Amino acid sequence: MISEYEKTRNINIQRNKELLESLGLDKPLVEPKEQKRKPSTTSKKRKSTATNDEAEEPSQPATKSQCIEIATNPDSTVRRSSRNTGKHVDYRSEIRGDQVLPLAFSSGVKISENEGPLGRDDGVRKHDPKTYGSIPGVEVGTWWETRKGCSIDAIHAPWVGGISGGRQGAYSVALSGGYDDDVDLGYAFTYTGSGGRDLKGTKAAPKNLRTAPQSSDQTFENPFNQMLKRSSETKKPVRVIRGFKLKSPYAPSEGYRYDGLYHVEKAWTEKGLNPKGYLVCKFAFKRLPNQPSLPVREVSQSDETTE
DNA sequence: GGGCCCGCAGGG
DNA sequence: CCCTGCGGGCCC
């Protein structure tokens, strides 16, 4: 028995896929090369492309070779899971003891060995997140345990919000599975806008939430949705991070990963995947060429509730 | 697992 | 100031 929710979701996903196809986004511009991870033993070097300024120019994405050359530091690859926070897990002995590696590492979900926050530990930014294009020193594939790390490294400033931007368009977006009918092809994806959620709850039950179910239409009046629409006009590059909650083969198994620059190809509205069919703002993203290929999860996500 | 409630950075 | 938002921690 397929639930109404499932049915609507399948329809929406199909529609969004067709939309991406109609835009020519069903295939990557460049076929991803095979991801070879050579077990280098050279010391870690972090190339900081010292091209600051230029908030107007899309800065160059890091090349693939740059990322691969970063060596594996055995001590720094110890990965903590946000799900295990406060559980007093000795990750180091876990790895050295029984050779169990965290999934994010063993399945090759990372591209770069970079692990944030980079640079400073005091939480002060070295770079301004209110810029278009890449952030100096932060390679495509850089991984953080929490959204706070993304913020410190100026990749995506908001700790919760999915969209950050300015007058000429969005600076960055976070894909974290907030909307079930979004389609993620890696090199292209659909994204749902902000708003239309009742974050306060009722007077009787003031929840003071940060996220909540859809309870009204989204519109392009919403400043964040407006920014993304602007992006589709100005073609400013948008930084994209993918989070572990995203249901996609391109999602990291833990934490958040910087996946490089995308363009917003189209903005539209459609009936969203919610009980009342409230309208949502939708956006089609396309990844810019000449960036490291995205890692794919080996374990397929068979979390379909097929019963 | 789910419910609740919190700080925080950003934008108006 | 105010309010928002694809987190996260804690408690159960």
UniProtKB/TrEMBL annotation:
Subcellular localization: Nucleus
Matches recorded under Pfam families: SAD_SRA
Every YDG domain range: 133-287
GO CC terms, sorted: nucleus
Annotated InterPro entries: PUA-like_sf, SRA-YDG_sf, SRA_YDG, UHRF1/2-like
Chief localization: nucleus
GO biological process: negative regulation of gene expression via chromosomal CpG island methylation; protein ubiquitination
Source domain of life: Eukaryota
Entry annotated with the keyword ATP-binding: no
Molecular function (Gene Ontology), one example: ubiquitin protein ligase activity
Compositionally biased intervals (Basic residues): 35-48
Residue ranges, compositional bias (Basic and acidic residues): 118-130
Region: Disordered, residue numbers: 21-89, 112-131
Keywords, alphabetical: Nucleus
PANTHER family membership: E3 UBIQUITIN-PROTEIN LIGASE UHRF-RELATED (PTHR14140), OS04G0289800 PROTEIN (PTHR14140:SF27)
Entry protein name: YDG domain-containing protein
Origin species: Laccaria amethystina LaAM-08-1
Taxon lineage: Eukaryota, Fungi, Dikarya, Basidiomycota, Agaricomycotina
